[in-house]
Amino acid sequence: MNYNGKKVLVTGADGFIGSHLTEALVRNGADVTALALYNSFDSHGWLDDLPDNIRSRLKLVRGDVRDSAFLNRIMRGQAVVFHLAALIAIPYSYAAAQSYVETNILGTVNVLEAARQWETERVVHTSTSEVYGTALTMPIRETHPLQGQSPYSASKIGADMMAESYARSFDVQVVIMRPFNTYGPRQSERAIVPTIVRQALDPNCPAIMVGDTSPIRDLTFVEDTAAAFLAAGLAELEFGHAYNAGSQRAVTVSDVLDLVVELSGSKKPVHRDESRLRPQNSEVRALLADCSRFESETGWRAQTSLREGLQRTIAWWRERLREGRVRREKGYMT
Asked: Does the pLDDT at position 331 exceed 50?
């Protein structure tokens, strides 16, 4: 994937997937502007953890996608825009739904409107498998009905529809990337894999506390997800349409728990924590990707097995704990 010299903007670059994508783009020769959410701590999120030879080649910018004038300025001259900035913590969306509308929908409109004005070569808009809700048929194709089972997923459905509408109405060259559950280093504990791993390894945790372990998920290692974004930025794809990216392997949360316990060597008891449960009609029971369309048009396919991905994730958490650098990210992007 030849990004040599191509001017690229990544919104939400300070987050989990965003930081991995930013690193991959730099390694592939792109001229990257990385947008991080402004904060008063002089932090660029996970971008501050990138190797010096990567970070030194970035143009770091702080701001907010809700600010249309700011976004319009930084998008001028960009060839490709990867739009990952979003509020993503599902539990918080129950408490503050309006903030999800303002960031996820209005922020996306601001990106699309700037792309329209500057005739950006391509926008890759980030969706989520959560827009499908509990699977009615599996594996899930892009034609599966969209179901807003949380305020978060409803806001992402709205953002996806705005992306589709700008492609249809204004010929904005936008691709809708729909990754399934991603895991790996740098992920915050709002997600199930790092929640389990950290508790399994942390000597300050006497037990592993979990919610419902019966849901089925399609888990993709973060480097594979970043590679999917790279492919979406260059391949000949249909604008205004969604493309799934997942491992195409189904696993229960219980299976993940058992594998983490095995790989970490944990002997801790496992307890159910009722506070970790979603509202009954909001829990997404099963997600499994059909990525055949994206694979056929790009050649991309997830390469990392769940065992290997969890081993690498556990190794990263061991190092963080050893260095005393554990922090709970509340942040801006997945």
From this structure: no
pLDDT in tens, 254-265: 999 999 999 999
pLDDT band at 42 (very low <50, low <70, confident <90, very high): confident
CATH superfamily, domain at 7-184+220-245: NAD(P)-binding Rossmann-like Domain (3.40.50.720)
Q: Which residues pair with 218 in a beta bridge?
A: 250
Q: Which residue has the tokens 């992402």?
A: 156
What is the per-residue DSSP string for 273-320?
-GGGPPPTTT---B--B--HHHHHHH-------HHHHHHHHHHHHHHH
Q: What is the pLDDT of residue 326?
A: 62
- How far apart CA 298 and CA 247 sit, in angstroms, is 15
| Alpha-carbon gap, residue 21 to 145, rounded angstroms | 29
CA–CA separation, 133 and 49 (whole Å): 34
The separation between CA 47 and the C-alpha centre of its own chain, rounded to angstroms, equals: 15
In the chain, DSSP assigns E strands to 7-11, 31-37, 59-63, 80-83, 122-126, 174-179, 182-183, 208-210, 216-218, 220-221, 242-245, 250-252, 270-272
Decide: 242 and 293 in contact? Cβ < 8 Å. Answer: no
Domain ranges for the chain: 7-184+220-245
pTM above 0.90, yes or no: yes
Strands 31-37 and 59-63 come out as parallel
| Nearest in space to 108 (alpha carbons), one of 143, 141, 75 | 75
pLDDT tens, 257-299?
Answer: 999 999 999 999 999 877 766 676 667 788 899 999 999 999 9
Over range 224-242, report the average pLDDT: 98
Q: Is the N-terminal amide bond of 91 cis, ω within 30° of 0?
A: no
Beta bridge pairs of residue 122: 80
Cβ-contact 38, 67 below 8 angstroms:
no
Nearest to 318 by CA among 257, 252, 260: 260
Mean pLDDT value of segment 247-259: 95
**Could you count the other beta carbons within 10 Å of the beta carbon of residue 247?**
26
